[in-house]
Amino acid sequence: MAQGNWLFQRLPEWVVDTLTPDQKEAIHRVIEDPAWKRPPVNIRFTLPVVHRQFYVTIVSGPERRSDERRGRDRHRYPLRTLANIFFFLGVATVFYVVALVALAFMSAIVEF
Fold it and tell me: Considering the domain boundaries, does residue 74 fall inside one?
């Protein structure tokens, strides 16, 4: 039952006090439910960029969300935002620069 305590510690005390023991047990069961497994791809790291740090999270696995939730998420977290466009442009730029440098080293352009 200790795994679910983090949730109760974050809730206001008056909310926890209103829960019955059966409700608390049900919450613990949901938190410890093995159906909520970690996704097969779960990459998380921090990028230091000019005196700031940005976190990057890549999570991938089988889709388990309902159609309703996917539609709601599509509106709450749209893919086409200015920040996402700059991110993808930055990733593409880094990829192409690395590819060009690799090609330059492999060809006669740069000799050892």
Answer: no
